[in-house]
Amino acid sequence: MHTFYSHIPEFFTLLTLEMILGVDNLIFISLICNKLPNNIRNKTRISGIALALVMRFLMLCGASSILSMHRAVIPLLDVSPRNLFMIAGGGFLLYKSTKETFSEIFPLKEETTVRTFPDMFWSILQIIGIDLMLSLDSVISAFGITSSVLMICVVFTIYAAVAMLLSKDLGNVIQKYAGFKIIALLFIGVLGAVLFMDGLGVKVNHNYLYIALLFSITVETLNCLHKKYHNKKL
User: Fold this and answer.
1) Phi and psi of 188, rounded to 5°?
2) pLDDT by residue (tens digit) across 50-97?
3) What pTM was estimated for this model as a whole?
4) Cβ–Cβ under 8 Å, residues 37 and 117
5) Distance between CA 96 and CA 93 in Å, rounded?
6) What is the DSSP string of the chain?
7) Residue 102: other Cβ atoms inside 10 A
8) Which of 40, 62, 90, 170 could form a disulfide with 195 if both were Cys (CB 3.0 to 4.6 A apart)?
9) What residue ranges are annotated as transmembrane (predicted)?
10) Which residues on neighbouring strands pair with residue 74, listed in sequence order?
11) How many CA atoms lie within 13 A of 39 on its CB side?
12) pLDDT per residue over 105-147, tens digit each?
């Protein structure tokens, strides 16, 4: 019993950390699923998050390998697999953000071709890939807090359940209010730049990202409330 209570602070520390660090992942999932037809959005969201959770468990099983990924594979350049992973993932997020922001501001004619399965499959792959990239540091950090793999698995499972519940509502908000969608897209772009720099060895405190995101959302929320109030008066 004493052992159980002694692990409670570690559990809540891990859970809080995962919920905070998972915000960027939730935003990405919402943006990806909003591009899909309504009839497959929920299925894609749940499948992607569930498979990403399985991949996280596999990542935990190879935790010793993950912790040794800082070893350089290109000694002259001091480049490790983790660096390459971050550079590739950050570059992808930068490309995705730029492309989606451009198409949001200058919308092109929508394609009439229905490609349900390929689009769903590609979206699930993106969710899994980005989740793995964004969770790599949280897995390493988790082992710095506790050595209990079971506890980390429980925390990841709780986060996945919360993500399944919240990503749909977040997606609806992003879809309804264009301002929030632009903020989300730009946030993904900045996150991509930070991950890219991380891969190059330049460390940027992620707290600055979350403060900027919170400030932008607050301003846009006040702007929406202002418009709603004045439209009622008119």
Assistant:
1) -60, -40
2) 998 898 888 777 755 555 555 555 555 666 777 777 788 788 888 888
3) 0.68
4) no
5) 5
6) -HHHHHTHHHHHHHHHHHHHHTHHHHHHHHHHHHTS-HHHHHHHHHHHHHHHHHHHHHHHHTHHHHHTTTS-SBTTTTB-HHHHHHHHHHHHHHHHHHHHHHHHHSPPPPP----HHHHHHHHHHHHHHHHHHHHHHHHHHHHHH---HHHHHHHHHHHHHHHHHHHHHHHHHHHH-HHHHHHHHHHHHHHHHHHHHHHTT----THHHHHHHHHHHHHHHHHHHHHHHHHHH-
7) 12
8) 90
9) 12-34, 46-67, 142-166, 178-196, 208-225
10) 79
11) 4
12) 777 665 544 456 677 888 888 888 888 877 776 776 676 667 7
Task: Give me Rg for the CA atoms of the chain.
Answer: 19
User: Residue 62 and residue 154: Cα distance in Å, rounded?
Assistant: 17
Task: Count up the domains in the chain and report the number.
Answer: 1
Residues in the chain, how many?
A: 234
